[in-house]
Amino acid sequence: xxxxxxxxxxxxxxxxxxxxxxxxxxxxxxxxxxxxxxxxxxxxxxxxxxxxxxxxxxxxxxxxxxxxxxxxxxxxxxxxxxxxxxxxxxxxxxxxxxxxxxxxxxxxxxxxxxxxxxxxxxxxxxxxxxxxxxxxxxxxxxxxxxxxxxxxxxxxxxxxxxxxxxxxxxxxxxxxxxxxxxxxxxxxxxxxxxxxxxxxxxxxxxxxxxxxxxxxxxxxxxxxxxxxxxxxxxx
Amino acid sequence: xxxxxxxxxxxxxxxxxxxxxxxxxxxxxxxxxxxxxxxxxxxxxxxxxxxxxxxxxxxxxxxxxxxxxxxxxxxxxxxxxxxxxxxxxxxxxxxxxxxxxxxxxxxxxxxxxxxxxxxxxxxxxxxxxxxxxxxxxxxxxxxxxxxxxxxxxxxxxxxxxxxxxxxxxxxxxxxxxxxxxxxxxxxxxxxxxxxxxxxxxxxxxxxxxxxxxxxxxxxxxxxxxxxxxxxxxxxxxxxxxxxxxxxxxxxxxxxxxxxxxxxxxxxxxxxxxxxxxxxxxxxxxxxxxxxxxxxxxxxxxxxxxxxxxxxxxxxxxxxxxxxxxxxxxxxxxxxxxxxxxxxxxxxxxxxxxxxxxxxxxxxxxxxxxxxxxxxxxxxxxxxxxxxxxxxxxxxxxxxxxxxxx
Lengths: 235, 405
Fold this sequence. Notes:
The complex is a heterodimer of chains A (235) and B (405). Helix content of chain A is 51%, strand content 3%. Chain A is an all-alpha fold. Chain A has 2 domains: 2-199, Cytochrome c-like domain (Cytochrome Bc1 Complex, Chain D, domain 2, Orthogonal Bundle); 210-235. By secondary structure, chain B is mostly helical. Chain B folds into 2 domains: 31-292, Cytochrome Bc1 Complex, Chain C, CATH 1.20.810.10; 299-405, no CATH class. Chain B has 15 helices and 2 strands. Chains A and B meet through helix 1, strand 1 and helix 9 of A and helix 5, helix 6, helix 11 and helix 14 of B.
């Protein structure tokens, strides 16, 4: 098969595509919001996810919901694997089919914070930087160098720096020996929310390994067969 | 396998009452194909495969999807909720949905390569003009189907993408506003828009299936081109489609499915190229995203649109950039088909491919002054290709074409 001419143009085109693809990727990585995001080192093992769930229910759910995460799923997803008793304690009066919705009503939220806190079910997928974004925001509170934005509403990672959410993990003014503890909480909840954004990701990848393995084998067999069938054709 | 199937009593019974046997023989088992087709000829069958995958996964998605922009808790809508339900609660819903989302991009990758093959080897030239024109119709319907489908998740990019594109039609003189209004079913993109886009998103693939039938039929009348671009002796230089090209296409399918399944199972968002980050934010008509860009497969035409200061000129240029494909077979007057034997055309067509890639890149990125200039240059090259084409044969010294493949 004489591919030489087309090959050259393919090579050129592939080079151009690679060039075109790498530029926006490196651009979006550094995009951040003036500041490059911290690397949260997201880990979705059982212990981290359970710890993240705890931070989520104790802190985040004061204002935020994750309505696409049903109480029943906490048992059903093997990555979380809560027992029925643990779920019953968490859900109170809610049914297993209910999503995890905050007690804070939108009207009360607007009165207290000026806006409705976003639902967190998909937050890691809806922000550039995913889990790193959540981690950075939670540990990004500082004093406004210009002294304009009130304390607790200035976040170096938030677009425009003025964030309505007041420092949920008490990052500002913490002592040095608390740093690891608070970072641990932020890391756990960022990891938990990364899991919640796509709860079938591990199942997907597990199946994917078999699918790809099968396809490589299939491609090999079909290639052998093709060679056998074509062996007498002059081309 | 096909031969033994055709010997069964059931097939004999059917064959006695229809022309099934003669169709299978003339179109498949004895259909003569050039023996020198290279792997660039695999993309036609791959496009057909992806079309079937899209229709099948689409049918299953529609069993759970609800086209309604009615608000639900948390700033979401019924449509957005129904997709998350597919992703989380429906058994293997995530698989079907990711196959469909990745499939949309895969469809365009395969079809763009198919078109590039046709351009490079001169497959659009006589006697295959009509085959090419049917292909352009397929491309336009595909782009329409993709555009309608992208609204359905009702995310920010769905909403604002549809807003930008339907607004474009407002630039048409006199009847512009009427067209945008009819498209949207109102003055702004809303629930009626979602419902009519959903209806059209179901209709277009069915049209596609019918027209693809026409495309294949037209191909089987004029027969395949080949890398040498020469007319071949149908007795001596062809081989039957089955088993030679059935096995080659099957091998191509397996190779294609490897990257396809890699994206479906390991990287469905493809770094934001297949599913954009902003589309995980529910649609909000009060908040415009910082940067609105169509999905990658529509970005070349978006750049052409943005390259003109006047909206009307931009829309006209975008329309022209696609419409000009229809007349391509009549612009090219050279007697030689394949770029292998056309040194000038070969340079031109490679430059054209690069210009489309650059246009795509510019349309995907946030606009800057430099990128705008780059986009304008690429637009000029894009149209330059078509403008130069009618004159190339006058000065191009083609290389000697072989008599036989």
